[in-house]
Each structure stands twice: as structure tokens, then as C-alpha cells.
Specification:
Elements lengths: L3 E7 L8 E6 L2 E5 L15 E4 L2 H4 L5 E5 L5 H4 L2 H8 L7 E3 L1 H13 L7 E3 L5 E4 L2 E8 L6 E7 L4 E4 L17 H10 L3 E3 L17 H10 L5 E4 L5 H13 L3 E5 L1 H12 L24 E5 L9 H6 L13 E4 L8 H14 L2 E3 L14 H11 L3 E2 L6 H13 L16 E4 L2 E4 L7 E5 L2 E3 L3 H13 L1 E8 L6 E10 L8 H21 L5 H20 L4 E8 L1
Parallel strand pairs: 3-5, 5-6, 6-7, 11-12, 12-18, 13-15, 13-16, 14-15, 16-17, 23-25
Antiparallel strand pairs: 1-2, 1-19, 2-3, 4-21, 8-9, 9-10, 10-11, 19-20, 21-22, 23-24
Length: 555
């Protein structure tokens, strides 16, 4: 009997870019195709994708892609993956109805329309080569969230996706606990479980409890209200709309992804908007402040998001002013705290009141707390536990929770990206490391900018750049014209600019004279010599290490 391999290409040791290869009998099912947003030190990078080099070599072995839900960290990489692997090489992409509608919208944007997208109902069995695939309904902060059960001759792998056990969800359909229990009774070989909130004790609050608190907060606001949330949190958007309608306020949707997702949600029946409630953003100023609620993107401080632009007074349709109230109906994803705090501070500077989940219960996490993780473990009773979706601290804590409910420590595998778990009749073990890592999206380019490129961007942002143009004789290498010196972004110098330029010119002339004496003629060697001499001089003079770019021109 073949071995079963579970290879995480993203999502372990980090929060984001979830992508998992499940392999059996030489065939592959890919679960989730996520991305994450860049950290502050990734200068000029727009998106971070998993490295799918492993899949490039195995593209003909892929039976299909299954997406657990429509969040960017599980779905956002799909267009890039299809473009790289070949759009027609993937048999189909499977997921819940809303998830596939969001996927269809993404692929349309990228002009990718060949790959079939299959809506799958919970409980429906689909054969994908040696796998029998079933989706199990879960509750999360977006409708149509699913766990994925992949059954082979060896056993069943259950990938939970993101989940919580919300007993009173907004749509009235709780997680399918009975099906999870049935799977546990029949035997689950490996549980790949969400670790996001394992560090929070107890049970997470219900999403339906947020609505009354939002209405309470709104009732105490005299001016305009701006609510920012994930654009994909359709149930939260519905509760904001309900609260606004109850208090006689109009609602404006601001942010491209917010408008797009609300339209998809309305088409699929997940969002109901009373007739005449929605207000075009361009008409916001036509209504008195106490009659307006704005629902905006930007809860994570994303650089180009609507709220971030409002905070910097750069939004074309919404200009915030004193007396506005901004409600953050979300919490920062780990790693985004700095960007969110900067946005909040800018809002206070404008004169806005800011309400976050610390000030009022205006947010409920979509990820289960520790007791819900224990409940999942007890329902499923897996033979092996493979904690997913978390940094190394959370993966470790997930392992401790598994031990607390009676799972042996040697059946718990705390992995990392690129480290495959291999399971056969003899047991489970980690196999040899496969290539993993990050692919950067820089503008419209998809690639892996070398470490030197990011290092250069950091250097430019910190210490600036010197450009020195030297003109030398082709015959003897002597300087034939005064050097030109240009510097940008160099921190304040102790010397006047003109004096510093004169000294740099002297250093250039001395270097060229030495090179002429030593009969150094090659352009590359001349530029290297100039670089070393100039860098040493600039550091001695300014105690800075700007980028030094010497240019030698022969005449």
C-alpha cells in the first residue's frame, strides 16, 4: 500500500499563505491556495505567495484544488498559481458556493476563465483519483467555510480549514458536529487543525452577539460612523447594515473589495439590504452626518486600503473630520499591529473618535479558542495530529492541547513549511525536506527577488544613495573632467553640501590617480576601487552606509 504524504507549502510557522499538498499513490490534491501581505521590511513587495516549485514538476499529477473558504490567506494565490502551472493543466477547483463565486471574480480580473470551478455542497462525495473528497460545513467569519476530508485506502486526512464552534451563527447553520463525530467514529488518520487562537482560553464569543453591540455603539454616536472590517466578513457587514437600518442611517460601501464582496453576497442570498438603504460614496456629503454609516476596507492598515487613505486625507470620496467615529470591527492579524496602530493614530490626529475591540465587543474572532480546539480533537479522535495555520508558538500550544485530551506525544507532529509528513502502515514520520519558501509579487512581476535586492531597498530607505560619475581617458586612465556627485536621501550631514561634494571629488581624483599609476584600465575594476574608497570615506565622514554607485565613462 502506498504511503500518504502531507506537504505544507505555506501556513506553518506563520499566519497566512496556506497551501497543502496531499499526495497518495502518485496523485495530488492541493488544499488551499493562499497568500499573505508583506511585512514592513519587504520594501516594494505587494504580495507574498508560497513557493510552488514542487508543483511545477508535478503538475500532471494534480487531481484538483480544494479551497476551504474565501479568505485571501486561503484563496488569494489561485490566479498566480494557475498562470504559472498552466490554466488548463488543473482539472478543476472545488469549494463552497460563495468561495467559488469569489474565485470566479478573481480569475475574471486576471482574465483566466478556462479552469472549471465546481460548487460543492457539504456532504457531497467527489472522487479525485485515489481520493474520495468530502466537504464538511464549518462556522467561521465567512459563509461557506468547509473542512476537507480526503479518504484513501490508508485512511482519512481531515484538514479543518479555519473554524469555530459557533452555536448561534448569523445564518443559523452551526458547524456539522454530527458529521465530525461520524468521521471520528470511523477513524481519522491525520487531523490538520487550525492553531490560530489556541493561546486564548475558553470559547470564542458568537458572531451573532456582535450585532447588538454595534447597534449600541452606533446609538451613542452623533456624527458619521465609519466601520472597517474584512470585506469578506459578510455576516459582519450584514450586522452593520442591520444596525444602521435600525437607527435610520444610510450605508455607503467604500473600497473595491467591499463593494465586490457585498454584491456577490447579495446575489447568493447571504446579505439582505433594505430598499433605498445603500448610498453611493459620492453622495455621502449630501446627507447630514448623523444619517450616514460608511463600511470600509482597511481594518489591517493595508497601504492602499480605503481607510488608510482616509486617515492620510488622500481618499477621493470620503474626507474624515472632527466628530466622526471610526469603529474597528476586526483585530490585527499578527504582524499587522504596527500598520493598524499608525492608522489609528492618524485618525485621532484628524479628530475622530476610534473604537476598537478593546473598547467594546464589536468583534468576534472567526477562529476557535482553546476549548474549541479540544472539542475538535475529541470529536475526531485522530490517530495523528498535525497542527496547521499558526506560528511556531501556536503550533507548540496546539500540540499541548492534543496531549491534554489524551493523544500521545509521539503522535503529534509539529512541522514547518516544506517538511512532509509521511504516513504508511508502519506509522508516521517526517520525510526529507522539499523546496518551500516565498514568491514575491512586485508590481505586476511574479518572482523571487534576490536577497540582495531587498537588502538594497532597505539600505536606500535608511541611508540614501550616492551616485558618482567619473570621466577618464581611454588611453592612460587619467581623469579628464571633474567628477559629478549626486546624492539623494542621505541623512543630514555635519558638513555643508558643497564642502562634502568637494571632498568626495578629491577622493575620486585620488582613486583615479592611483588606478592610473597601477595601470588599472578595466571599467569593472575601476568602479570597484571607487566604490571601496568612497564607501570608506562616506562612513568615516557621516557614520552612515548609503548605497554608493560609481559610474566610470571612458572618452
Amino acid at each position: 500500500m502506498s504511503a500518504l504524504r502531507i506537504l505544507p507549502l505555506g501556513g506553518l510557522g506563520e499566519i497566512g499563505k496556506n497551501m497543502t499538498v496531499v499526495e497518495y499513490d502518485g496523485r495530488i490534491v492541493l488544499v488551499d491556495v493562499g497568500l499573505r501581505f508583506p511585512t514592513a521590511d519587504m520594501m516594494g513587495i505587494d504580495l507574498v505567495l508560497p513557493d510552488f516549485a514542487y508543483l511545477r514538476d508535478r503538475v500532471d499529477d494534480i487531481e484538483g484544488i480544494v479551497v476551504t473558504h474565501g479568505h485571501e490567506d486561503h484563496l488569494g494565490c489561485l490566479p498566480w498559481l494557475l498562470r504559472e502551472l498552466g490554466e488548463t493543466s488543473i482539472p478543476a477547483v472545488y469549494g463552497g458556493r460563495l468561495t467559488m463565486a469569489m474565485a470566479r471574480s478573481k480569475l475574471d480580473e486576471h482574465k483566466l476563465r478556462e479552469t472549471p470551478l465546481e460548487d460543492v455542497k457539504p456532504g457531497e462525495q467527489i472522487d479525485l483519483g485515489p481520493f474520495s473528497m468530502e466537504l464538511i460545513h464549518m462556522t467561521h467569519s465567512i459563509p461557506d467555510s468547509m473542512a476537507v476530508a480526503l479518504t484513501t485506502e490508508l485512511g482519512t486526512v481531515l484538514v479543518t480549514g479555519d473554524y469555530k464552534f459557533d452555536q448561534t451563527p448569523v445564518d443559523g447553520v452551526p458547524a456539522d458536529v454530527s458529521r465530525l463525530a461520524e468521521l471520528g467514529r470511523d477513524g481519522v488518520l491525520v487531523l490538520c487543525g487550525d492553531s490560530t487562537n489556541v493561546d486564548r482560553p475558553g470559547f470564542s464569543p458568537s458572531e451573532s452577539g456582535v450585532g447588538p453591540h454595534l447597534e449600541d455603539v452606533f446609538s451613542r454616536c452623533e456624527g458619521r460612523i465609519v466601520v472597517t472590517s474584512f470585506a469578506s466578513n459578510i455576516h459582519r457587514v450584514q450586522q452593520v447594515i442591520d444596525a444602521a437600518a435600525a437607527l435610520g442611517r444610510k450605508v455607503a460601501l467604500v473600497g473595491r473589495s467591499m463593494r465586490k464582496n457585498v454584491n456577490i453576497g447579495r446575489q447568493l442570498g447571504h446579505i439582505e439590504v433594505p430598499e433605498g438603504l445603500l448610498l453611493p460614496p459620492r453622495e455621502i456629503d449630501d446627507f447630514p452626518d448623523h444619517k450616514v454609516v460608511v463600511i470600509s476596507t482597511g481594518s489591517q492598515g493595508e497601504p492602499l486600503s480605503a481607510l488608510r487613505r482616509m486617515a492620510h486625507r488622500d481618499h477621493p470620496q470620503v474626507e474624515l473630520h472632527n466628530g466622526d467615529t471610526v469603529v474597528f470591527s476586526a483585530t490585527p492579524i499578527p504582524g499587522n499591529e504596527r500598520a493598524v496602530n499608525e492608522t489609528v493614530d492618524r485618525l485621532y490626529h484628524i479628530g475622530c473618535d476610534v473604537i476598537t475591540a478593546r473598547d467594546a465587543p464589536v468583534h468576534a474572532s472567526g477562529h476557535g479558542y482553546a476549548e474549541e480546539v479540544k472539542l475538535m480533537l475529541n470529536l475526531v479522535r485522530p490517530r495523528y495530529v498535525f497542527p496547521f495555520h499558526g506560528d511556531h508558538k501556536r503550533i507548540h500550544l496546539h500540540g499541548q492541547l492534543a496531549e491534554a485530551v489524551g493523544i500521545e506525544s509521539d503522535a503529534i507532529f509539529k512541522g514547518e513549511n516544506g517538511l512532509p509528513l509521511e504516513v504508511d502502515e508502519r506509522g508516521a514520520r517526517f520525510a526529507a525536506h522539499e523546496q518551500s519558501g516565498m514568491i514575491f509579487v512586485d508590481g505586476v512581476d511574479l518572482g523571487d527577488p534576490a536577497d540582495v535586492a531587498l537588502r538594497d531597498r532597505r539600505m536606500l530607505s535608511a541611508d540614501g544613495i550616492f551616485v558618482v560619475v567619473a570621466t577618464v581617458s581611454e588611453q592612460d586612465g587619467e581623469s579628464v573632467a571633474p567628477p559629478e556627485v549626486i546624492f539623494r536621501g542621505v541623512p543630514a550631514q555635519d558638513e555643508p553640501d558643497d564642502a562634502l561634494v568637494d571632498e568626495i571629488c578629491d577622493v575620486v581624483e585620488a582613486s583615479l590617480d592611483r588606478a592610473a599609476r597601477d595601470e588599472i584600465r578595466e571599467i569593472d575594476l575601476l568602479q570597484q576601487l571607487l566604490h571601496d574608497d568612497l564607501a570608506a570615506f562616506v562612513y568615516e565622514r557621516l557614520r552612515r552606509r548609503p548605497m554608493v554607485l560609481p559610474v566610470v565613462v571612458e572618452v
